[in-house]
Specification:
This protein has helices spanning 38-46, 88-104, 123-135, 151-165, 186-208, and strands at 8-14, 27-32, 64-69, 73-77, 108-116, 139-144, 175-177. It has 209 residues and is α/β, with parallel strands linked by helices. It has one domain (8-208): P-loop containing nucleotide triphosphate hydrolases (Rossmann fold), CATH 3.40.50. The longest helix has 23 residues, at 186-208.
Length: 209
Amino acid sequence: MDYQIKSVKFLKSEVDYKKCPADRLPEVAFIGRSNVGKSSLINMLANHKDLAKTSSKPGKTQTINHYEVDKRWYLVDLPGYGYASISKSMREKWEKMIDNYLRYRKNLQSVFVLVDIRLEPQELDINFINKLGEMGMPFSLVFTKADKIGKNKGAVSVRNFCRKLMETWEDLPPFFVCSSVDGRGKQELLDYIDQINEYYYNQKKQEKE
């Protein structure tokens, strides 16, 4: 399939899902714990070094950020979770913003949950994934920073995470092993997003017939 992003344009940042761009296009959202490499991954997918702002300080993304891709779909950059350096009231505000977006954004097709491949299964990640399950929201896993760990160790880490998930899930979601440094997993992830968008447009076509 070899889908490649040809054009991407930043649209707007919002804290209220009701003020996000009109839901005329399908969209996928990216989220993960703070410092998981989300901005770097988005930049890699878009072939754009500074599209999403990267920072050594966690919590750089504080709004729902919409990008229009190829005039065909939206890429959404969501704030991270697990931010330890902000107040409790701010944390609760972010959590409510993300929760409302996930529950009520009508054209949201799938959520990509980013997980640092170097770490043991984290409770924050598992809890967030379980919440998506309770919402009935389709999601996939993206194991990031694969270049920072050996291939065998990475495989063990993915297997351990999947084993942890299987304690509460009957079926595993799709997952991708990626690196924003060497481009690993980029094509597989882009092709999967393209499949999601194709399904969306096919469904719309059938509704009109």
